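Quiz preparation item.
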């Protein structure tokens, strides 16, 4: 997942208001402590926690993403693993999972179960999910064209069945002498209903602490804040 896309990720997300996003997270994450950032990508948010004196670990399934994360901040500890299959043998006061990373996971219950095993009692878990409305927000006739200085990306969307979608990305990356190289990636996106989310939390030792939305981050995005009992 996210191989060649990792090389253009920071350019792709350059319009994301990371400072505002981080400020929102800090409403629930107050005092610096141990924190795990799942799906950390190139570590923009992770680095903000590091700067604010948190004992932070960045986790991602993509070795390529972590390669760029280490370029951005090589003082942070990074772990490459699939959170659906394994977890870190450590405990954290806070766990975050940003930018609808959860929607790329096929097994939500396994994700929550592994978070619970890594979370201190009384700790806070924050993640965001998107609803199916995200595809209407981004795609016009199931196609999204993204043209930037160093790449052009064509995204196509197909609904495979209820709550499961396929995203195909064709990336044309500018190389030397203005030659473009094509790379193709394929991703699955899974939609989770709030009832399923709450059941998963309750079954793994969490209570729902808060739910939040902000149009700045898209009308389809829901932030879930849970507390470990």
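Solution:
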């Amino acid at each position: 997942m996210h191989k060649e896309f990792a090389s253009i990720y920071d350019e792709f997300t350059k319009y994301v208001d990371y400072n505002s996003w981080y400020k929102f997270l800090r409403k629930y994450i107050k005092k610096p402590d141990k924190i795990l950032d799942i799906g950390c990508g190139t570590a923009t948010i992770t680095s903000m926690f590091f700067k604010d004196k948190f004992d932070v670990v960045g986790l991602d399934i993509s070795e390529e993403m972590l390669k760029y994360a280490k370029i951005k901040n090589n003082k942070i500890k990074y772990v490459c693993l699939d959170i659906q299959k394994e977890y870190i043998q450590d405990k954290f006061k806070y766990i975050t999972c940003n930018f609808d990373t959860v929607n790329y996971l096929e097994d939500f219950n396994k994700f929550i179960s592994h978070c619970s095993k890594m979370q201190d009692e009384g700790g806070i878990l924050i993640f965001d999910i998107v609803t199916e409305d995200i595809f209407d927000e981004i795609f016009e006739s199931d196609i999204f064209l993204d043209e930037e200085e160093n790449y052009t990306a064509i995204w196509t969307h197909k609904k495979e069945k209820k709550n499961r979608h396929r995203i195909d990305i064709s990336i044309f990356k500018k190389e030397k002498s203005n030659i473009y190289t094509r790379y193709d990636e394929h991703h699955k996106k899974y939609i989770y209903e709030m009832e399923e989310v709450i059941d998963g939390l309750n079954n793994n030792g969490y209570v729902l602490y808060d739910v939040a939305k902000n149009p700045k981050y898209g009308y389809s995005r829901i932030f879930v804040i849970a507390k470990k009992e």
